[in-house]
Input
Amino acid sequence: MKLLSAEFVASAAEPAQFPAGDLPEIAFAGRSNVGKSSLLNALLGRKNLARVSQTPGRTRLLTFFRVTMASRRAKGSPEKFLFVDLPGYGYAKVAKSVQDQWGPMIEGYLSSRSPLRGVVLLTDIRRGEDDEVNVVRWLGEHGVGLVAVAMKIDKLPRGQRLQALRDLETFLGVPVIGCSAVTDAGQDLVWKAIRGLLARPRRVAVSHNRISM
Output
C-alpha cells in the first residue's frame, strides 16, 4: 500500500474523548522511551507527527492519528485507519499518581475499544522486560491481535542481531520483528504485520483482569 496522508486527530484520556466513527485502530504500546513515537514518525514518513521526547513518561494521553493508504486494488477507494500512540509504561520517576491513572486508562482502552484490531508491542532488542511478558499474556487472554517489534536493532552489530531476536522470542513466547526507526531496517515487515492486524474481524470487547506493569 502507498501512504497518501497521515494527520493528528485527537489526544484523549477517557472514552468520551475518543474519536467517533468505526475506522479500524492499531495501538502502539511499550515502555517509556522505547521509541514508539519515533517508529510512528518513521512508518508514516513524517518527522514530527508524533511528538518525540527525550524525557521518558512525557506522553500521558492516548493520541490518535488518521492514516490514509492507496488501495491495493487498482480502482479501489483509499483505505483509512487510525494509529493510536499509548502512554509509555514502567517509568519509575513518573509520580505514582500518574502511574495509577495510566494503568486503568490503557487497560480500559485495550479491553473495551471495539474498533481496535491489534497492538504493536515495542521492546528494546537489547533487553526484554517482565512488563512485556505480562502485556503479551494479557493481550492473548483478551483475544487482542499482537505484533511484537524489537526496536533499536541499529544499536547492535549485525552479527549479534539474529541471536538477540531469538533470545527475545524465547523470552516473550511470540515471534518478534527486528526494526529501527533510524534506518529503514524491518519497517517493511512491520507494515506487512500491521496489514495482517487490519484484516482481523471486529471483536467483541470484554473486560477481565488487570495488566501487571
User: Anything to note?
Assistant: The longest strand covers residues 3-12. The chain has a mean pLDDT of 84. Residues 3-198 form a domain with the Rossmann fold fold (CATH 3.40.50.300). The chain has one domain: 3-198.
